[in-house]
UniProtKB/TrEMBL annotation:
Entry annotated with the keyword Magnesium: no
Higher taxonomy: Eukaryota, Viridiplantae, Chlorophyta, Mamiellophyceae, Mamiellales
SUPFAM superfamilies per the UniProt record, alphabetical: SNARE-like (SSF64356)
An example Gene Ontology CC term for this record: endoplasmic reticulum
Protein name: Trafficking protein particle complex subunit
GO terms, biological process: endoplasmic reticulum to Golgi vesicle-mediated transport
Gene3D superfamilies: 3.30.450.70
UniProt keyword list: Endoplasmic reticulum, ER-Golgi transport, Golgi apparatus, Transport
Subcellular location field: Endoplasmic reticulum; Golgi apparatus, cis-Golgi network; Golgi apparatus
Matching InterPro entries: Longin-like_dom_sf, TRAPPC
Length: 152
């Protein structure tokens, strides 16, 4: 049985589950669920973001490969986690059902939306939680477009 079939049999919804943004200090600045997955309370969400930030940094230091920037993909039986880190240290990651196609492109789109709607917002303060309606709307549209394009 494939990983995607095993996940579907376990009741894991297809497609993108959530999008997270972690600042360079390891603080969670944005998290949004896009699938019917079990909820996590606020404190646990903050803790998980901090843990991911730490694991990402440790993996970059322990890697035997020169120039490694950290974990880019974590695959499990029930979900995949795909991550990118910007030159400024901000991390964007998405969780999705196993073998979801198009996550790299989605992360590039999230980064572009972040630049367009968050960083260009004169009311946004760096390293603070993202509260920008246009970012939310366009991100939801991008996730829906990916899920629809691949039939999720």
């Amino acid at each position: 049985m494939s990983a995607a079939a095993a996940a579907a049999a376990a009741g894991v919804p297809p497609g993108v589950h959530s999008v997270w943004v972690i600042n360079k200090s390891g603080g969670l600045v944005y998290q949004k669920n896009y699938a019917d997955v079990p909820g996590i309370d606020t404190n646990e969400t903050l803790r998980l973001a901090s843990i991911w930030h730490s694991l990402h940094a440790i993996s970059a230091q322990l890697s035997p490969v020169e120039g490694c920037t950290g974990i880019e993909l974590l695959e499990t039986e029930h979900f995949d986690l795909r991550c990118i880190q910007t030159a400024t240290g901000t991390k964007f990651f998405v969780t999705a059902s196993p073998r979801t196609i198009g996550l790299d492109q989605l992360l590039r789109t999230v980064y572009d939306l972040y630049g367009d709607y968050v960083m260009k917002n004169p009311f946004y303060e760096l390293e603070m939680p993202i509260r920008c309606e246009l970012f939310d709307q366009n991100l939801a549209y991008a996730v829906r477009a990916l899920n629809n394009a691949f039939g999720y």
